[in-house]
Amino acid sequence: MRILILGGTSEAAELAGALHKRRHKVTTALAGRTQAPRKLPGRVMTGGFGGAEGLAETLNAERFDYLVDATHPFAATISANAVAASGKAGVPLLRLERPPWAEPAGGRWWHAADAAEAAETLPVGSTVLLTIGRQTLAPFLERHDCRFVVRAIEPPEMDLPHGFDLVLARPPFAVQDELTFLKHRGITHLVSKNSGGAQTRAKLEAAFVLKVQVVMIDRPALPPAETVPDVASALEVFDHLPVPERRSFFLPLLRRT
Ligand code: NAP
């Protein structure tokens, strides 16, 4: 089966590997934001499609049988495009979306709809750990009355002003290390997207223990799609699908006389 995976997450990479091993023809599409993306099995396409229309054209032109949206839960534009393109091209869509983190009893998270709202909630004088990636930092740059530690995998494109420290680090993070990090930096507030997953959850456990206030940016709403929570469930879907009809088109060419 020819499968297009919209990637950019560890789950997308894992799924690409597993489907490739099952002899599917896997293509992973990446936005091209990361300077050194990990090596992926199968084919890789880098750069956007030109909206839902472009994605639908690619699905048809390259005769994909299935589209998997395994992008990050906050990549809302490409996820909406996937739903629209799947409808336009008549190619089925499966969304692989890890469940959000649940607030622990007594956790008392503050919730924000987006980075701008999260920036507004911070009290004057707070020392804030920002773990929201490097693309939504703008609203925090206006808060000259707080101190920030920005933790990201790759450096932001802009220079960070006075009052901002940059820490480059790649998950997974362990609870003990997060406890040390938060204490050492004197963090009073932690701003996080509700990305979900095990790789970066330790910061929430550490914040709970140290009574660091969590400001959680809630997930954007996505249009409905058939959704599975993990790679194993996605594989189950593919393992139970019938072989697509268009394959038989090629079979006579392979027969020996
Ligand atoms: P986005 O706002 O939803 O998408 C913006 C545009 O980028 C899309 O319209 C599309 O361009 C292109 N694009 C996005 N993902 C793509 C993909 N996998 N393959 C090809 N084109 C893609 O996305 P974003 O939030 O900037 O995230 C970009 C990528 O980073 C995603 O692949 C996501 O999985 C990954 N990521 C995002 C976050 C996050 O917090 N947002 C965190 C970790 C990883 P066209 O309209 O031209 O097709």
List cofactors, ions and other ligands. Answer: NADP nicotinamide-adenine-dinucleotide phosphate
What level of helicity do the residues show?
A: 25-40%
Number of strands: 12
Helix/strand/pairing category: alpha/beta
- Gyration radius (Cα, Å) is 21 Å
| End-to-end separation | 26 Å
Q: What is the mean pLDDT?
A: 94
Count of alpha and pi helical runs: 9
Strand order of the largest sheet: 3-2-1-4-5-12
Overall geometry comes to: elongated
DSSP strand content: 15-25%
| Helix-strand topology string | EHEEHEHEEHEHEEHEHEEHH
Low-confidence stretches: 247-257
Identify the notable features of this structure and list them briefly.
single chain; 257 residues; alpha/beta; six-stranded parallel sheet; 21% strand; disordered C terminus; binds NADP nicotinamide-adenine-dinucleotide phosphate
Set out the fold topology.
Blueprint: E1 2-6, H1 10-21, E2 25-30, E3 43-46, H2 51-61, E4 66-69, H3 76-89, E5 93-96, E6 110-112, H4 115-121, E7 127-131, H5 138-141, E8 147-152, E9 164-168, H6 175-185, E10 189-193, H7 202-210, E11 213-217, E12 227-228, H8 231-239, H9 251-254
Parallel strand pairs: 1-2, 1-4, 2-3, 4-5, 5-12, 6-11, 7-8, 7-10, 8-9, 10-11
Helix pairs in contact: 1-8, 2-3, 6-7
The chain binds NADP nicotinamide-adenine-dinucleotide phosphate.
Q: What's this, in brief?
A:
The chain is an alpha/beta fold and 257 residues long. Helix content is 32%, strand content 21%.
Structure notes:
- This protein has 257 residues and is of the alpha/beta class.
- The protein is 32% helix and 21% strand.
- The protein has 9 helices and 12 strands.
- Strands 3-2-1-4-5-12 form a 6-stranded parallel beta sheet, sandwiched between helices. A 6-stranded parallel beta sheet has the order 6-11-10-7-8-9, sandwiched between helices.
- Helix 1 runs parallel beside helix 8.
- The longest helix is centred in the N-terminal third of the chain and has 14 residues.
- It binds NADP nicotinamide-adenine-dinucleotide phosphate (NAP).
